[in-house]
What we know:
This protein is mainly β. Helices cover 6% and strands 36% of the residues. The chain has four domains: 5-64, no CATH class; 69-81 and 108-203; 210-293, Thrombin, subunit H (Beta Barrel), CATH 2.40.10.500; 322-520, YVTN repeat-like/Quinoprotein amine dehydrogenase (Methylamine Dehydrogenase, Chain H, 7 Propeller), CATH 2.130.10.10.
Amino acid sequence: MVGLITMVILHGCNPVAEISNGSPERFTHSQVQAAASTLSDSETRIQDEVQLTQSVLGPLEIPVNPYLANSPWPIFHRNTYAQASTPLRGLEPQDSFDVDVLNTDIDGTSPWTQLSEAYPDGSRVVWGATVTHVFKATANQDSFELIDSYRIDRNRLSNHWNLIVLPGNKIIVPDPWQRKIYKFAEADPNDWRSDIILEDTFDLPRDIPGRTANINLAYDGWLVFLTTEGYFGAVSDDFNTYKSLQIPQEDGEINFHNGMALDEAGGVYIVTTDRMLKVNWRNQALSIGWSVPYDFRGPGCGDINRNVVQELFAVIGGDTCTGSGTTPSLMGTGRDDKLVLVADGHTPANHMVAFWRDTIPADWRGIPGYDRRIAAVTDLPHSTPDGDGFTAENSPTVHGYDIAIAQYNGFKPGCDPVKGVQKLRWNPQRRTLDLVWATDNVNFNNVPTYSKGSNLVYGTGRRDCIYHFWGLNWDTGDIELEIPLGDGPEYLDQGNQVTINDDRTTFFASSTGLVRIRPE
């Protein structure tokens, strides 16, 4: 379910920027280095930490999408690979903490939370979106308050995936119910206090049926989206040109349960209830890369045919047979093994399922009983829909060849929810996805977030009726950080992410608004 930079590059990344005539221009390494010298101090710090971060276990930090905002967290899951990991430091055990709560009094579920680019005075804001509003709030100021909000829909069932921050602090938000995609800006782009304004709207044309289920941003600046009727689209940044493609989909097959991931080569990865597929977006043309059948609902579920609202309530209610609840997450860059991973909805335990993203290795023999593109199917000991548990609805966090995922407990977990977090590792020599550690000491009710700078994976959850913020050692799973928060709904993360700023300030969304934790 949720599991829904001007010219900064990595080693080997070839960024693209849009020039005035609309054609792509590619920058050399020396040009990028020269441009980087003009960045603000905070922007340069982000660039330096990204370039210096390298996993000793696997791939480098992924190529930066130059059409995303130069922000520590411009998109849900932090990047278009949907990895929910960062090279920046987060909260650490030696810190003391200042915890602030912002009740937004805005209709809808707990909001998506992204961070803006730095304003001229060094400030940032938190951009958020519920199902009814887009809003912004103070981020690194002493106060923690709502700055402005803009109503986008009055239908609380208009469930959408993602909010994207573009350069210049322009914001992309879909409105499924009204079949629109909005581009918001600010009345004064240099003043974080200024009002939100609607800059442009893309109305889905009649030849693209369905509602806008989720969105992402390609490395050429085009916005890609998927509709509930199985149509994949791409629209230019000025909203004047679009392309569309109907994806494979059978009766009763659901494609809108999750977000989607994409890579720098134009591969877009979508999971449905019945398959994993890749759409290619290259040279402003769409095509199906591959489509692999997999029963994500699970054995014994039979034929299920639910509409959008029925499927949503089945997920909220913790029903079995709802399929994968995780946004596809990408692993591997450069010459490394390239995989796309999702959790299935099987019982009694979910599985982490890995697929080869590109050409299947010639010497890969496959796994008996599965399509040859499937690279691994690994049991998750602490992810179950049985009993009081829920199917995995929060996407994993990925760094290098490591991936961690947690047990989900729904929108209203009890005082003693089902606990469990686990980490797996892809072994490129044996080509296996192996369990590294598993712990039932804590409950993470959100997308886990990994900080390479602090070597901790963060999450929020409940124990003995009290909500906590935890940090687990990435190598062992041991608890290294524990911050008791309180027992009220203002601390309930219903399945969002932990967002980390470049000053280590940390945010997460709650059922009533936002929570900010600052190291002192």
